[in-house]
Amino acid sequence: MNESNGSMELYLRAHTEEIINNWLSKIYENEKAYTSFVYSPRYKDELRADSEQTADLIISYFTGKNAFFEKLDKWLDNMYARRMENEVPLPEVITTLDKLRREFVTAVSDFCIENDEVSKYDFFSSMAMVNHGFDRINEAFSAMYYNDIVKHMEQQHLLIEEISTPVISITDKLAILPLMGRVDRERAEKLSEITASKCVKFGVEQLCIDLSGITYFDDALGEMLNNLVTVLRLLGVEAFISGIQPKMAQQINRVDLNLSIQAYHSLKAVLQDQTRTI
Q1: How far apart are CA 175 and CA 272, in angstroms?
Q2: Which of 235, 214, 217, 164 lies closest to 194 in space, CA to CA?
Q3: Residue 213: φ, ψ to 5°
Q4: Same domain for 123 and 261?
Q5: Where are the transmembrane segments (predicted)?
Q6: Most buried residue among 42, 56, 179, 192 by CB atoms closer than 10 A?
């Protein structure tokens, strides 16, 4: 660390409380701009403690990049966990960090104005360190936030797929798979995979695929039914369909579907028939 960086580090540490107080006043004068309670005056002490850790991280950049990055991981562990725990939106995190950045920029400028011996190079170097420090913080925090969002979306997608393929047990042997909406090729593939897995898991021996909620019967749905019935047969599961309406029967005829399995007009007919066979 050169002499100029050392002097700047000492100055910023000596003025950290002033920097944070100025930052907090900017936060609270626009309190309504934030949706998270974290930025409420009620939690001023917690917010001050967080900003002190952030300030210490930025100032460590003047000691050297290694010192900064060693502290960055610890900062992320604490700050990211607290912000996510309190569901603070990413834009609010970035906005408040940028407000703190501006207070540091002002402090660096004040130091250079107060010290005539500071060269233009030292001034721009100090500014670059502050900006690089905040940029690295924003990048690291945003990357973690993005990865969590992607992970959450993947989990939600899996949950939606699970919910959209409800294999409902009716008896110890019989289950129903009610299909809803339109089945495209991507959904058809997932339906077949999840349905087969659930039939094995629940020990299903007979599966009724109910088409009452299907809006349109096309090639994708026809292929899915063919594939699903074939897979179920290999698993020892007897499949049949229900909910065939006149319009759908015409659509099935155009698709030229030949499932060679038993079909019922309605679920009621399925239950009546299965009750007689028990």
Answers
A1: 14
A2: 164
A3: -95, 5
A4: no
A5: none
A6: 179
Task: Give Cα separations from 127 to 72, 137, 208, 264 (angstroms).
Answer: 19, 16, 70, 76
The residues, ordered by sequence, that sit 6+ positions from 85 with a Cβ below 8 Å of its Cβ are none
Contact 8, 62 (CB under 8 A): yes
**Residue carrying structure tokens 């959450």:** 152
CATH of the domain at 243: 3.30.750.24
* 265-274, long-range: CB < 8 A, 24+ apart: 266/212, 266/242, 267/176, 267/208, 267/210, 267/212, 267/242, 267/243, 269/242, 270/176, 270/208, 270/210, 270/240, 270/242, 271/170, 274/170, 274/171, 274/174, 274/206
- Whichever domain contains 140, its CATH number is 1.10.490
Domain count, the chain: 2
- Which candidate, 59, 44, 48, places its Cα nearest to that of 20? 48
The residues near 79 (Cβ < 8 Å, ≥ 6 apart) are 50, 53, 54, 141
What would the pLDDT profile of 220-260 be if each residue is shown by its tens digit? Answer: 788 888 888 889 999 999 998 888 877 777 777 776 666 67
Q: Is residue 253 part of a domain?
A: yes
Q: In what order do the strands lie in the sheet with 206-214?
A: 168-169, 174-181, 206-214, 238-242
Q: Give me the mean pLDDT over the 13-40 stretch.
A: 87
